[in-house]
Specification:
By secondary structure, the protein is α/β, with parallel strands linked by helices. 44% of the residues lie in helices and 12% in strands. The mean pLDDT is 95. The chain binds 3-methyl-2-oxobutanoic acid (KIV). 3-methyl-2-oxobutanoic acid (KIV) binds next to strand 6.
Length: 296
């Protein structure tokens, strides 16, 4: 049996075999991700869009993240469990950020946390490291900055912005993150960060040079209901279609009376069924039942 993944093992995987990361938001998706061989399970704040139906990730709270992280942790995966810090859970004060991250670990069972942002997050990252909490960074297209970015746009397309992103990655690595997610950045920028920074990069829409790749579970297996799929997603399944087909077959059997069949039905012992029939058919049945009730 494969041994448990830890933050130090992820860090040590830099430049080795590609890291496999996927989101999961509950017990069954965590079990599936783990059986498939994930190295890292991210309880992403993307659960806001993917599972809870919000338009963006901004509405999800630390309470909700703790709730879902705990469901994932109950699957006891081999994969490292990373809990995502939602918007405003680490932006107000450093002590509040540490307390919120601590909740993901203590109540949610996360083994590391992820937070979005570059150099301005350094005080928080240092405080989390002081509290012995492994931190994963997240640079590039950071969905919590949707309004500041003016939409979901690829980041680091211009030379200056790319240089800033590279500097952010160095700063995060110096502050002690064990890995960095690079989302929505040009491949050459991700390749440069991966080459220079001594911690694994995990790409999503960042080309193939990264030390690992991550996608959203529902996108990979085709469980999402949305029409829009980002360019960087590759679908490997069509579970929503399969689920609809299964339910249609169930509903058809309900209408036709074919469900439930003999094998899906509980039966009384024959003798009890006979007495029950007599009780309900005999004119004195009501009295018999009343007598029985009095005796009890
Ligand atoms: O919340 C999330 O799912 C993420 C990944 C896309 C990296 O942050």
């Amino acid at each position: 049996m494969a041994t448990k993944m830890t933050a130090p093992k992820v860090l040590a995987a830099k430049g080795g075999e590609k890291l496999r990361m996927v989101t999961a938001y509950d017990y069954p998706t965590a079990q599936i991700a783990d059986r498939a061989g994930a190295d890292i399970i991210l309880v992403g704040d993307s659960l806001a869009n993917v599972v809870l139906g919000y338009d963006d990730t901004l509405s999800v709270t630390i309470d909700v993240m703790v709730h879902h992280t705990a469901a994932v942790a109950r699957a006891k995966p081999r994969a490292l469990i990373v809990g995502d810090m939602p918007w405003l859970s680490f932006h107000v004060t450093v002590p509040e950020a540490v307390r919120n991250a601590g909740r993901l670990i203590k109540e949610g069972g996360a083994e590391a946390i992820k937070l979005e942002g570059g150099r301005k997050r350094l005080p928080v990252i240092r405080a989390l490291r002081d509290a012995e909490i492994p931190v994963m960074g997240h640079l590039g297209l950071t969905p919590q900055s949707v309004h500041a970015m003016g939409g979901y746009r690829v980041q680091g397309k211009r030379a200056h912005a790319a240089y800033e992103l590279l500097s952010d990655a160095h700063a995060l690595a110096d502050a002690g993150v064990f890995a960095i997610v690079l989302e929505g950045v040009p491949d050459v920028v991700a390749a440069k960060v991966t080459e220079e920074v001594p911690v694994p990069t995990i790409g999503i829409g960042a080309g193939r040079s990264c030390d690992g790749q991550v996608l959203v579970f529902h996108d990979v297996v085709g469980l999402g209901g949305g029409e829009y799929l980002p360019k960087f997603v590759r679908r490997y399944g069509a579970l929503q279609d399969e689920a609809v087909a299964a339910l249609e077959a169930f509903f058809a059997d309900v209408r036709s009376g074919d469900f439930p069949g003999e094998e899906e039905t509980y039966h009384m012992p024959e003798e009890s069924a006979r007495v029950f029939r007599e009780l309900t058919e005999a004119p004195a049945g009501d009295d018999l039942l009343a007598d029985e009730a009095m005796e009890r």
